[in-house]
Specification:
The protein is an all-alpha fold and 148 residues long. The protein has a single domain (4-147), classed as Arp2/3 complex 21 kDa subunit ARPC3 (Orthogonal Bundle), CATH 1.10.1760. The chain has six helices and no strands. The termini are far apart. The model has no long low-confidence stretch (mean pLDDT 92).
C-alpha cells in the first residue's frame, strides 16, 4: 500500500492497476502461486485503480493516503478473506469473518503507518521528482558524458 498509492496518484488508473496486479503475481511466484494468486492480484489491482480515482483530485498528503488505505484495506480484506475463502476454500462465511478480524487489525495498522509515512515520501522524492523522469535520466547521462 505504501508504494501502490504514490504510483496510483502519480501515474493514473492503468499504472495503479498494473502495479497492484503484478506485485501480487511476483510475490506469489516466490511464495505460493495458485488460484489464490489470481483472486488477490485482481483485488489488489482494483485497490490501485481505486487509489488513482480517489487521489486524482486530492493532494498527495499523508491524510489522503491514510484515508484511502483504511477504506481499501477493509474492502480488500473483506473481499479476499470472508467472501473469497467461502467460495474458493468452501469455508463457512462466519468462520472466515471471525478469523479475518485479527489479521485485518494488523493489516490496517501496517497500512496506516506505510500510507502515512512512506507514501508521501515516495511521492515527493521519487514520483514527482523530475530527476527521476525519462528526461531527467537523459540529462544525467548527457551531463556525465560531457564531463569526461
Amino acid at each position: 500500500m505504501g508504494t501502490l498509492l504514490p504510483i496510483s496518484k502519480g501515474f493514473g488508473y492503468a499504472s495503479g492497476f498494473l502495479f497492484g496486479f503484478i506485485s501480487i503475481i511476483i510475490f506469489d511466484s516466490f511464495t505460493m502461486f495458485g488460484v489464490w494468486t489470481w483472486v488477490t492480484a485482481i483485488a489488489y489491482g482494483l485497490v490501485g485503480l481505486g487509489g488513482a480515482w480517489w487521489l486524482k483530485n486530492r493532494k498527495p498528503s499523508a491524510k489522503n493516503f491514510v484515508a484511502y488505505s483504511i477504506v481499501a484495506t477493509l474492502a480488500y480484506d473483506f473481499m479476499t478473506g470472508p467472501i473469497m475463502s467461502s467460495v474458493v476454500f468452501k469455508m463457512s462465511f462466519m468462520q472466515t469473518l471471525i478469523g479475518q478480524i485479527p489479521f485485518t487489525l494488523w493489516h490496517l495498522g501496517g497500512n496506516i503507518i506505510l500510507a502515512g509515512v512512506l507514501s508521501p515520501i515516495l511521492y515527493k522524492w521519487v514520483i514527482s521528482n523530475p530527476e527521476f523522469s525519462i528526461q531527467g535520466a537523459k540529462n544525467l547521462l548527457v551531463s556525465r558524458s560531457h564531463a569526461k
